[in-house]
Design goal:
Elements (H helix, E strand, L loop, with lengths): L2 H13 L2 H8 L3 H15 L15 H30 L3 E6 L4 H14 L4 E5 L4 H9 L5 E4 L8 E16 L9 E2 L8 E5 L4 H12 L5 E6 L2 H9 L4 E5 H4 L7 E6 L5 E9 L6 H15 L1
Parallel strand pairs: 1-2, 1-3, 5-9, 6-7, 6-8
Antiparallel strand pairs: 3-10, 4-8, 4-9, 4-10
């Protein structure tokens, strides 16, 4: 028994005529009759009562018709899904993003969901360079929003935007009254800095080096959230991206711009240039890039 036989059988039943069914199927009536007879022989059942003047199904024939309709409908649905997958790819998007992207990413998600409402999105935070590269090269994520600039044979960075870095000062600290903070101001207070392997650490240390200052590093952290809470507890001062704190109320932490030089960092979209990405993934990348250009 094959699908063609089932399709022929369904058409005979629905047209209630071998002649009309053969016309719709663009085959000869004898060929259609032979196909139905082979189906009956294969099943060992009589499906059509041929003694009647019109097509009349046996009880077994009725059961087969409804079951065959299910099979054919399921096959048609599967073919449509495979066609969609071929054109669009799986409705899945897996990305990694830095903490500061939380301020704009929900707006982009809305736009992506507008184009593909059924898309399933996984979001992770891979903060170190090695984690990020491994996730991209092992196909664990489709792309990353990061402040690492990566340009290799496999990985490509697309510039998205630039963000300022600002100082976080504890409440009741002598520096809280200053409008701007200098690198010299940060020479002696306990300083909170990202661990080695993080690009923001390199950016901040480069600024201290430029000012010929060695900071008093007493805490090394992975997440800005940890640094914020340490500052909030009065345990030190830190420098974080302005986007991390610019949309929240901060009653116990003071946000200060840097005076000596504008500490900035670039944010990129990094993807594997050698990997096939479905049209849906490409569309999401285009949406993100367009969002920041505007």
């Amino acid at each position: 028994m094959d699908l063609t036989q089932l399709q022929y059988y369904i058409k005979v039943v629905e047209e209630k005529s071998f002649t009309r069914a053969a016309e719709h199927l663009h085959i000869s009536q004898p060929s259609l009759s032979i196909s139905i007879k082979k189906l009956e022989n294969h099943l060992g059942l009589s499906l059509i009562n041929r003694k009647k003047p019109h097509i009349q199904l046996t009880k077994e024939g009725e059961i087969l018709y409804y079951q065959a309709k299910k099979v054919i409908n399921q096959m048609n649905s599967m073919e449509e899904e495979m066609k969609r997958l071929r054109l669009e790819g799986p409705l899945e998007l897996s990305i990694s993003m830095i903490e500061t992207a939380k301020n704009w990413f929900s707006e982009v998600i809305k736009k992506i969901k507008t184009n593909s409402n059924d898309i399933h999105i996984q979001i992770s935070e891979l903060l170190s360079l090695s984690e990020l590269q491994n996730a991209l090269l092992n196909y664990e994520i489709h792309y990353a929003i990061t402040n690492y600039y990566i340009d290799t044979k496999e990985l490509q960075s697309i510039f998205l935007y630039e963000e300022n870095l600002v100082a976080l000062i504890p409440d009741d600290h002598p520096l809280q009254t200053k409008t701007f903070i200098t690198m010299e101001d940060l020479k002696h207070p306990p300083f909170i800095l990202c661990k080695e392997g993080y690009q923001t650490r390199n950016d901040i240390l480069k600024a201290f080096q430029y000012a010929s200052i060695s900071p008093n590093i007493q805490f090394e952290i992975e997440r800005f959230e940890t640094a914020y809470h340490l500052v909030e507890s009065g345990l030190g001062i830190t420098i974080v991206p302005e986007n991390y704190v610019n949309k929240s109320h901060h009653s116990t932490v003071h946000i200060k711009k840097m005076k000596d030089q504008e500490l900035k960092r670039n944010v990129y979209l990094v993807k594997d240039r050698t990997r096939y990405l479905s049209p849906i993934i490409h569309k999401s990348i285009e949406t993100i890039c367009t969002f920041h250009k505007s």
